[in-house]
Design goal:
Elements: E1 2-4, E2 8-10, H1 11-22, H2 33-46, H3 54-61, H4 69-75, H5 82-90
Antiparallel strand pairs: 1-2
Helix pairs in contact: 1-5
Length: 93
């Protein structure tokens, strides 16, 4: 699954990037989408405000590769990309 910000990046790559800039060390392992959907259904039945919902699962699994050509043409939008954005934000420039 991909995010867009001038470049494509998988959820796993994004998680590793976030951990690298946050100084954290965590084990990252894939969890099947079907399991997440089932867990969201169960959590909704047993919790008032579950940490995992259908909307969360949908948000993570849906491709966010949007067409930005009109914003580039009309507004001069020039995304820098996720990796470069993290570098600028967390490395002082």
């Amino acid at each position: 699954y991909k995010f867009w910000g001038g470049e494509e990046i998988s959820i796993g790559e994004l998680a590793r990037l976030m951990l690298r800039y946050n100084g954290g060390r965590k084990i990252i392992f894939p969890v099947p989408v079907a399991f997440c959907k089932a867990a969201a259904v169960v959590l909704k039945r047993v919790m008032k405000n579950p940490p995992l919902t259908w909307n969360v699962v949908a948000g993570v699994t849906q491709d966010a590769n949007l067409d930005r050509s009109e914003a580039e043409r009309d507004l001069g939008y020039r995304p820098i990309g996720v990796r470069e954005g993290f570098r600028r934000c967390f490395s002082g420039g």
